[in-house]
Amino acid sequence: MPRVYHLGVSEREIAGAPLALLPGDPARVEKIAATRPIENGRFVASHREFCTWLGSIGDTPVVITSTGIGGPSTAIAVEELAQLGVKIFIRVGTSGAIQPSLNIGDVVITTGAVRLDGASSHYAPIEYPAVADYEIVWALVQAARKLKIPSHLGITCSSATFYPGQERSDSFSSYIIRDLRGTKREWERLGVLNYEMEAATLLTMCSVLRLRAGCVCGVVDTPTHEAITPENLQRAEQNAIAVAVAATEILLSAQSQP
Question: Which of 83, 97, 187, 228 could be disulfide-bonded to 192 (CB atoms 3.0-4.6 Å)?
């Protein structure tokens, strides 16, 4: 049975999994596969930035694949998993807060995304909205409440770059082109919650392709604490994983109801 080009995975190897959890970091894949109620996690393939494991919740297989950083590689992962029959996608990421009310370790559940990613424009014109699937958003909210993890529901900004696109002061040159200066303040004023780099691509292409998608990200830095420490990263990552896996169980349970 043929394997898709970039992921190096075949349809048989993901056992008909209807849902994929999508961290950016390949090192996060095994952690997700070991998070209950996921069971029987096992390595499937690794190629470039794409690492894939397979687990199960009850009798339903769940695939976990890393997307790497940014829209182009995310689009490849989603395209190829969709070719293998996956219909539901949940991004499990980390994020920088824009709003000062967000704290390290909180999770952001994205309802829609600002399309500064670049890649999404290859799927739909910029006027087309990047919005999350309602049932996935609902499941993520329920999961965060059940786990008592502080969560925020709203709009995410997906930037094509980590440094200038997010107006970070810790870049090599600290220079930001004119068109990007002041944008962080503008997104704050418009109520945008956070920065990350993949949600807009995921949400746009899944809507266009008649797939379903959602996104949950743990907060690793805030406007007053820009430096990302290993402790903050671990806390944010653990919370995002916990919410995403619990939401997966909720979604699969709801689908099995008569």
Answer: 187
Does the domain at residues 12-256 carry the CATH identifier 3.40.50.150?
no
> DSSP code of 58?
T
- Give the integer Cα–Cα distance in Å for 50 and 46: 6
Is the pLDDT confidence value at 226 over 90? no
pLDDT of res. 257: 63
In contact, 24 and 69? CB cutoff 8 Å: yes
7 backbone dihedrals φ, ψ, rounded to 5°: -75, -25
Residue located via tokens 């896996």: 245
Tokens 């999508």 identify what position?
A: 22
How far is Cα 34 from Cα 24, in angstroms, rounded to an integer? 17
pTM of the model: 0.97
Between residues 234 and 256, the one the model is more confident about = 234
Residue 53: Cβ within 10 Å count: 24
Backbone angles phi, psi at 131, to 5 degrees: -125, 150
Mean pLDDT of 233-250: 98
Q: Confidence class of residue 200 from pLDDT cuts 50, 70 and 90?
A: very high
Q: Where are the domains of the chain?
A: 12-256
Q: Whole-angstrom Cα distance, residue 39 to residue 34?
A: 7
